[in-house]
Amino acid sequence: MPPEVLIRAEGLVKTFNKKNSPPFTAVAGVDFEVRRGEVFGFLGPNGAGKSTTMRMIGCVSPVGGGRLSLFGLDPDTQGPQIRARLGVVPQEDTLDLEMRVRDNLHVYGRYFGLPRAVIRERAERLLEFVQLTDRAEDKVEPLSGGMKRRLTIARALINEPEILILDEPTTGLDPQARHVVWDRLYRLKQQGTTLILTTHYMDEAEQLCDRLVVMDKGRIAAEGSPRDLIERYATRDVLELRFPLGEQEQAVEKLQGLGERLEPLPDRVLVYADDGEAALSEVSTRGLEPVTALVRRSTLEDVFLHLTGRTLVD
Fold it and tell me: CA 95 → CA 145, 222, 280, distances in Å?
């Protein structure tokens, strides 16, 4: 039997009408499914429609067109029932900084109408889960960014949600704090919680996501597992070449036809090839002497930039 589908979107649309401006379509007819127990990711540049889609999934923004269902329920008419089964970790922490760590969980639990005894038991368990038991009596304000992020995740779990929605869960954290958060999210997946996340970190998506979609200009450009997308849109290896200042343009001409795809950048040339070492040998055969040469495996970032471009979007 296939895994249960918890979220299904068919032709999902969201258009904003602003005064004195033409209508803007943020989400232009996307289709996707999220299955129970998986980690599903939304990747895309700024303005791609990720956050708008997440707001519709979270039942805080009405669907503009198409169909969206969660747990078989309609967000337009059954939003409260759906939200009771969701946990949300927003991009910006919204903790009460003047309250104690433990009290943030207690107050949030009351929003769901949970009995105080249940909240106390869950709060202690969640503080241990996010490694904050020793800070339970401290105020939130002096906590580090990583601690606040873990507390926000614990708060989102107080109602024991079936789906946890995370918007940029590790933005602004140092590498050590990011890995601690990754570990907690991986443990949630092992416990059967379904996770939906947006992220700008390609390594985060590769580490956490079972499946993901790459969005661009309100549409889905690609969908699949990280490994599937790399195999589909990139080569096994990437050869990175740097040439002396002023020699790159001539070098690019001599590199034509090498590998499956050539991508000149301002500071280097990328050669996409299934055998990076063989491509490097061919560089020497063609009489080129790069300042540096690096053969590496293709990553999800290569796929992302290939699908969405390298131009900065404001």
Answer: 12, 35, 52
Residue found by looking up tokens 């003047």 in the block = 98
Q: Which residue has the tokens 């560089």?
A: 283
| In the chain, domain spans | 5-230, 235-297
Residue range 40-58: average pLDDT?
92
The string of pLDDT tens digits covering residues 92-146 is: 888 999 999 999 999 999 999 999 999 999 999 999 999 999 999 999 999 999 9
Mean per-residue pLDDT of the chain: 92
Name which CATH class applies to 235-297: alpha beta
Q: Tell how far CA 265 is from the center of its chain.
A: 26
| Residue type present at position 290 | P
3-state helix, strand, coil in the chain (%, to 5): 35, 25, 35
Q: What are phi and psi of 84, to 5 degrees?
A: -65, -20
pLDDT of residue 1: 45
- Residue in the structure block whose two tokens are 């507390």: 151
Angle, helices 101-111/116-129, rounded to nearest 10 degrees: 130
Q: Which helix (H) or strand (E) holds 117?
A: helix 116-129
* Integer angstrom CA distances of residue 21 from 17, 26, 46, 49, 80: 7, 14, 20, 19, 33
Q: How far apart are CA 86 and CA 194, in angstroms?
A: 10
Tally the C-alpha atoms within 13 A of residue 125's C-alpha that lie toward its C-beta: 10
CB atoms within 10 A of CB 188: 20
Read off φ and ψ for residue 36, nearest 5 degrees.
-60, 135
Q: For domain 5-230, give the fold.
A: Rossmann fold (3.40.50)
**What is the tens place of the pLDDT at every residue in 11-35?**
999 999 888 788 899 999 999 999 9
81's tokens:
């029932």
pLDDT digits (tens, 9 = 90+) for 170-183: 888 888 888 988 99
Contacts for 272 with CB less than 8 Å, ≥ 6 apart: 234, 235, 237, 238, 239, 259, 260, 261, 262, 263, 298, 302
Q: Which residue has the higher pLDDT, 240 or 203?
A: 240
| Half-sphere exposure for 251 (CA within 13 Å, toward CB) | 26
